[in-house]
Structures are given as C-alpha cells and as structure tokens.
Amino acid sequence: MLASVGVRLSAASRGKVSLVSVSRRLCTKHPETQASLPDPLPDSEPPEQRRPKKDPAECSVLLFPGQGSQFVGMGRGLLQYPNVKEMFTVAQKILGYDLLSLCLHGPKEELQRTVHCQPAVFVTSLAAVERLNHENPKAIEMCVAAAGFSVGEFAALVFSGAMNFAEALYVVKVRAEAMQRASELVPSGMLSVVGRPQAQYKHSCLQAKEHCKSLGIEEPVCSVANYLFPDGRVIAGHQQALDFLQQNSRHLQFVRTKPLPVSGAFHTELMESATEPLREVLRQVEVRRPDINVYSNVDGKRYMSKQHVRRQLVTQVVSPVKWEQTLHEIYERTHGRKFPYTYEVGPGNQLGATLQRCNMKAFKTYEHVDVTIHEED
After folding, report:
1. How does pLDDT run across 163-197, given as a tens digit for each residue?
2. In 10 A of CB 165, how many CB atoms?
3. 267 noted as active-site residue
4. Is 134 a catalytic residue?
5. Which of 267, 296, 319, 368 is catalytic?
C-alpha cells in the first residue's frame, strides 16, 4: 500500500534528504502488496514557515522535460547514483512492468506509447535529480524554483515536496492511461511549427477547422497546444487539420513544420475524457503546498495552495502549455540582478533550446544533467 507520507524537501534539508528515501522504505516494508491509494486526507495545511533569503547569484532553477523527450537508452548513466535503482524498483511495483528495461532497451515503439513514456520521463527525470544531488548538492540546496513541461510538472511537484514520489507516479500512471484512451477515440496528433513574425496561428487553426468541416468532420479541433518561444508553437487537433497546415505551410507563413512522435492531440479539448480519471485520483493522494516556487503550465503562475495544484493539474490536460510565459515569470528580474543557475533534469535538452530562444542571458548559466553517460565514462 502507498503510505500517505510525503517526501519533504524543505529549503534547509533538500541537500540532505533523498528524493526517494520514503519511497524506498515503502518498497522494503510492503514488497508483496499491489499499489493502492490511501483515503482522502483533510484539507488542513500547516502554517507556512518563512525561508531564509538566498543570494540570487548562487540560486538555481530546475526544469523537468515532458513527453516527446524520451529515447531508448535514457537512464543508463544514472544507475550508479544512490537510490536510482530503488526508484525503478518502486516504479515496477506501481506500474506492473519493468520500466527500467523499457527505458534502457525499448523497443522504441513501446517506449513512445503514452502509457509508457509519461511514467518513463517522470522517473528518469527524478533519477537525474539524484545525479545532480550527488555531483552538485549545492544546486539542490539552493534551488528556489522549478517547472515541468506537461507530465514534467509532476516531477517538479515531487521535487518541491508537494507530492511524494510513489503517489505521484501512480497519478501519472492514471493520467497516461486516460490520455492514451482519449487519443484512441479519433485520429489526431501534434505538429511543431516555427513561423515568421507575420504568422497568425489562431487564424491558421480556424482555416484548418473549416477544411475539416468541408470533409464532413463535426466539431473539428485545431488549436495551439504549446507556446514554446517567440514564433514557436505546437498545434494539435484532428489529423486532417494538421495535414492541412502542413500542405499550406508556405501560405500560412510557417517556416518549418514537423509532426511530433505522440499519439494524440494533448492539451486540447480532445483530451476532455481524461480529466475525470485524473481529478478522481488527485482527490485520493496527499498534495501539499510546494516548498519552493513551482509554476503551472496553465497560466505560467506559481502554485499558491494544494487546492490550486489539484485544480490546475486537471485543467492542464485540456489547456495549452504556456511554457514561454512560464520562462518569463521565472526569469523576470530587475536590471543588474544576476540570473540563477538553470539545470534541465531529464532526457533530452529541448527545454534548454527553448530557454535559449526566450532568454539568452538566463541560458548562459544553463546546464543539462545527462541521463545516458556516467561522469567516469
């Protein structure tokens, strides 16, 4: 049974307490039980403790990637670090399959499935935190903010102490299964688009929907699903709408279009059927106010309460990921104030690429925590 105890990573102890120490105890105490959820907890929160201020020049920000960053072999460079193998052991008990083997050996087609890649990215990203904690504990201790892209938001919340690892993984499992089911209801997908300054994304989506109506599709969906960087978007919806956008890309002032290796139109209304299962499982797990600033994909603003966390995580599934806006919120500062160190923890370095295009000054202190190569390789 998943105990209703959380991984508290307060500012004072984040460098000393392992992300998965509680989850590891869960694994050893209950090796024979299947994952189940505790009764809903009361909504009372302990009074917030004032944290000491930190020198901005020494502070850090952690960014957690989302679906689409996965690749076969991820995690290979993390197994030498404390607690990582235990994390994957806990994951196997909760998910019911060998996640580590899937990450290391594939097959690629199975890893790319929504039901598999969301838990895989979640666990691998938090395993990367263990590497960062081992190599640079000050980066963990001095972390003042975190954000995650789509499913990466759950990893950010675990790191911040708002959710415990095992329960959050169970929620990710339910979310991934619900989104997989929703994606199978209608042919749909996602299209990465880089446009010229004069590109009009919403109007382009409207034209694509009109095209779908001419094909006999009732209530077609086509909308911006991710705001990545200036003139960088991901558009999602019915497959026929995305085909129209690609075929008319020059006329629509798109410089480049590329279909993403995902199975559905995530962060659009086509995911509506996935919201209730997610809402229900979030009622059953413990959620706390984050110990550090964690920013929501829905509006780019930081979470203010545990009720806010529960509400926004559900809304996020059918709302665009406002990543560009989130980066502006995190890195906005007065003139002359130094930027924090930024660490992308998880597979791929796409978030670093978006940061570079949104804020070059912040990017100068960016590092990627590699998930494939060990420091001694």
Report:
1. 999 999 999 999 999 999 999 999 999 999 999 99
2. 30
3. yes
4. no
5. 267
